Amino acid sequence: MKIFARMIRSLALLVGLALAIPLQAEDWVAKAQQHTIELPDFTFHTGERLPSVKMHVYTLGTPQRDSEGRVTNGILLLHGTGGNGTSLLAPHFGDELFGEGQLFDIGKYYIISPDNLGHGESSKPSDGLKAQFPRYDYSDMVLAQHRMLTEGLGVDRLYLVLGTSMGCMHSFVWGPAYPGFVERFVPLACNAIEIAGRNRMFRQMIIDGFRNDPEYHGGDYADGSALRTGQATNANILLLAGSNPYRMQAELPTRDAAVEALHRAQKAIAARNVDPNDSIYQLDSSRNYNPAPQLHLITAPVLWINSTDDFINPPGLGDPEALAQQMPHARFVLIPASAETYGHGTHSRPKLWKAELERFLSENP
Q1: How far apart are CA 309 and CA 313, in angstroms?
Q2: What is the pTM of this model?
């Protein structure tokens, strides 16, 4: 549900909605080490199996271990739907957190940012199986993250998990699935209820847009860019779902400016030509997500942050304040909308919430 990293980046660059990057911006991706980890004999929740799945991951910093050999400084960053491990290594994220003396100073912490299952360079339908790829869900994605950490990186404990959108929801899966593994959670921009209502509807609009495209051929297309109807539907829905109406009004104050920006953004997003099968699987992987009944099992400290201008998670929907109270050590924060926020994409702008993060870390050392 980061709905989505690719859309936010396209909006920022081509609609002019915003994203001023400081002149001293660091190339955190270039600084990162890349790892490809094979997970043999992977069994999905459906009972389907693959001989192995591949997890690709970026790391910054060095793991520190205690006297028992356990890593003490691991921070797992979890991107949103359609993103990848570089999504949270962008300058507007990393420059606020990763530098010397900052909250996630890579001289102190071991940053782990994977391409999650179905995304980036990790195993996904477009690798060859297309629509025959196992129909993974969030529990499978979290299992792959856990195995990547324990089997691939030798990490059996995490100082913190920070997740945006889909990664935010993964936080609420992690807690009950692996109690004691994660010491702190920072879920950003999501809900902890079933993906239903408008949320499921707009996901289904994109899924149907691809599946109903005459060039889809049951997922056995030769070129995803040929699905022009599906690609256009994807671009339009993502443009709407990921934007901030206050910022748009300020940046695009006339009808002509708005229409011109719309057409530029549509072309930019459509030009990315996302793989239709990958997108369908990514959007559908939330189909059985509903952590609410198990939230009480999450005993680690939790800082849950949403924003009021989030199209996907509007204020009050599902009563997140009450849901947070089901977790014994959780605090819910709602960031007010302004021309400085980024709609759903506020989750990846630490300047808007890092004061809350600093308070959280000081209260939960």
Answers
A1: 8
A2: 0.90
